[in-house]
């Protein structure tokens, strides 16, 4: 009897607690919007944060509340946007496909080394000690961007630069965040003129460190003053839409090949 009484007491208490929890669940549960499941299942489940939220679930919640647009997932693209818009009964809106582009041509042949780097073989670690190249703005070549890419859209070429496969690129922005020197940007896929340099050094110093560096000679800005300017010793595309097709050949007279037309062949 001394043993049975505690056992029965615990059993009764357990039963009462379970009944109480069941009643509380029914009283306090929050009904989930049935559209949430549909929107969540329409998303690619990459959880990359490219939409600006912590993951696909968080984005779906914002879309349902009207705080995020139906076309806010760049990874899913226009097809996902159309499905979400159909679920919500709204317009998907125009979606311009974007891709990552590397703003550097400082490969092993063009950029001079300043010494032998023996540290951790990551761009971040190398950047902390100044890198192994004379150019302190260019690609470090250790492939941090390739390792974080979830979509097999990046690989390192034989000259030590990352190459973007635009067919696979989803503009998730992981490579943008991974590069310690901010060499990646997301551009509309039809933007075909780029500045392939980030160096802010004066012309002679920039050219000494890398033969493909911008030397701020001004050829490009004089050819297209509305679209391009020289700022802090570097050519900047101020407004791509103001670069006329007939002006592009003049831009390609750049003596260091640091600005010009983007070709698919640039992808390797």
Describe this structure as you would to a colleague:
By secondary structure, the protein is an alpha+beta fold. It has 3 domains: 34-88, 3-methyladenine DNA Glycosylase II, Chain A, domain 3 (Orthogonal Bundle); 97-191, 2-Layer Sandwich (Alpha-Beta Plaits), CATH 3.30.70; 193-261, Alpha-Beta Plaits, CATH 3.30.70. It has helices spanning 4-28, 34-42, 56-65, 77-88, 123-128, 144-148, 174-178, 203-209, 219-223, 248-251, and strands at 98-102, 154-156, 162-164, 184-188, 193-195, 228-231, 234-237, 259-261. The strands form 4 sheets. Strands 1-4 form a two-stranded antiparallel ribbon. Strands 2-3 form a two-stranded antiparallel sheet. A hairpin with a 5-residue loop joins β2 and β3. α2 (34-42) crosses α3. The protein is elongated. The N and C termini lie far apart (83 Å).
Strand-helix topology:
Blueprint: H1 4-28, H2 34-42, H3 56-65, H4 77-88, E1 98-102, H5 123-128, H6 144-148, E2 154-156, E3 162-164, H7 174-178, E4 184-188, E5 193-195, H8 203-209, H9 219-223, E6 228-231, E7 234-237, H10 248-251, E8 259-261
Antiparallel strand pairs: 1-4, 2-3, 5-8, 6-7
Helix pairs in contact: 2-3, 2-4
